[in-house]
Amino acid sequence: MRTLAILPVKAFSQAKQRLRKGLPDAIREALVEAMLADVLGALRLTSVDRVLVVTAAEAPRRIALAHGARVLGDEEAGHNPAVALGIGQALSEGFDRALLVPGDCPALDPTEVDELLAHPAPAPSVLVVPDRHGTGTNALLLTPPDSIPPSFGPGSCERHLALAQARGVAAEVVRLPSLALDIDTPEDLEALAGSSTRGQRTHGILARC
After folding, report:
1. How many C-beta atoms surround the C-beta of residue 115 within 10 A?
2. What are phi and psi of 153, to 5 degrees?
3. Quick one: which of 78, 79, 136, 139 has its CA closest to 109?
């Protein structure tokens, strides 16, 4: 099945505000850029057919194009509206499924992504990859791309399962260690430093802190 990976990306200056207390703005923005580059680099090693970055900002656009991804502009209306734009693009281009992934999981393991893509699931189906706390959603594999309307944010893991149930769509939680850790807080940075050597660009920025 043809798969489009979709990454909504904010302007670096507006991203990861919860890290501002521990990091100077210049380091914080460099960290966000490095994480995106690490994720895009990992996705190039997977079996996804195409990667689409949805962004209104020039810097993410430049990085996406450098990694062979396509870019779709948005109006910085928020994560879920950006995802919706990407899903619309997937449908218009005839993709069978959409993999919604964040740009802030720098330890992303291509092997785990391919395991998710190979996970047996009927169509329509929703595979939910939770964050390390088990409450948020760090990735969704939607077959077809519009099987449910994504609703990221606090408590989204249970919300996505409920949306699938309401639509009569088969849903399953799939835990992937390298996608469990998204970077939002100083505690997340500590967990990354102590748990993974993947994400070389990100680790390079952290070494400067």
Report:
1. 12
2. 135, 180
3. 139
Reading the block at residue 168, the tokens are 């009569």
C-alpha angle 41-49-4 in degrees, rounded to nearest 5: 90
Q: What are phi and psi of 70, to 5 degrees?
A: -90, 160
User: What is the Cα–Cα distance from 50 to 43, expressed in whole angstroms?
Assistant: 9
Helix (H, G, I), strand (E, B) or coil at 201: helix
In the sheet that holds 125-130, the strands lie side by side as 70-73, 50-55, 3-8, 97-100, 137-143, 125-130, 170-173
User: Of 60, 157, 175, which is closest to residue 109 (Cα–Cα)?
Assistant: 175
Residue 45 has pLDDT above 80, yes or no: yes
Reading the block at residue 167, the tokens are 């639509």
Cα–Cα distance measured from residue 154 to residue 131, given in angstroms and rounded to the nearest whole number: 11
Looking at the chain, the whole-number percentage of residues with pLDDT higher than 90 is 78
Write out pLDDT tens, residues 87-135. 999 999 999 999 999 999 999 999 999 999 999 988 999 999 999 999 9
Please state the rounded mean pLDDT for residues 33-60. Answer: 97
pTM: 0.94
Which helix (H) or strand (E) element contains residue 53? strand 50-55
pLDDT at 65: 97
> What's the rounded Cα separation, in Å, for the pair 5 and 139?
10
